[in-house]
């Protein structure tokens, strides 16, 4: 089984990887560090490459996302794999966890008011509510 560490570009990504590492050591599992670029990020990258007169493929975009994941996992001391995905972050993380029979998903949580969650949504909250496996939230 694997531990899925869902990371973003924030400083909290390191905390998520540390929590995933602790779980992986306890269960002798691998860590899959996952970063998801949204479709808007994809289009921004495409626009930038068009301005530079270069083409960008979906594999290139996934590679950019995997690089973000790898950077977050740099200090992880267990076997890990960096994974880059494109789409809705919460949906893609949950789908990935299901596809890889994850033992746990680790996400970064934030202290937010109930109104703030309702108005702005939350990737962590959606993962917590929809994942089929246990979810660990690393609160800042």
TrEMBL record:
InterPro entries: Rossmann-like_a/b/a_fold, UspA. Gene3D superfamilies: HUPs. SUPFAM superfamilies: Adenine nucleotide alpha hydrolases-like. It comes from the Archaea. Residues 3-136 form the UspA domain. CDD domains: USP-like. Belongs to the universal stress protein A family. This is Universal stress protein. It comes from Natrarchaeobius chitinivorans.
């Amino acid at each position: 089984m694997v531990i899925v560490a869902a990371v973003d570009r924030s400083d909290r990504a390191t905390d998520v990887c540390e929590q995933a590492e602790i779980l992986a050591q306890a269960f002798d599992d691998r860590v899959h560090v996952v970063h998801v670029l949204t479709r808007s990020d994809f289009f921004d990258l495409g626009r930038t490459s068009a301005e530079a007169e270069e083409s960008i493929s979906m594999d290139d975009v996934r590679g950019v996302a995997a690089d973000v994941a790898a950077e977050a996992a740099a200090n992880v001391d267990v076997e890990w794999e960096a994974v880059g995905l494109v789409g809705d972050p919460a949906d893609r993380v949950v789908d990935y966890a299901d596809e890889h029979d994850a033992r746990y998903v680790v996400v970064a949580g934030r202290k937010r008011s109930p109104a703030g969650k309702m108005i702005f949504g939350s990737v962590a909250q959606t993962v917590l509510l929809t994942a089929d496996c246990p979810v660990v939230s690393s609160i800042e």
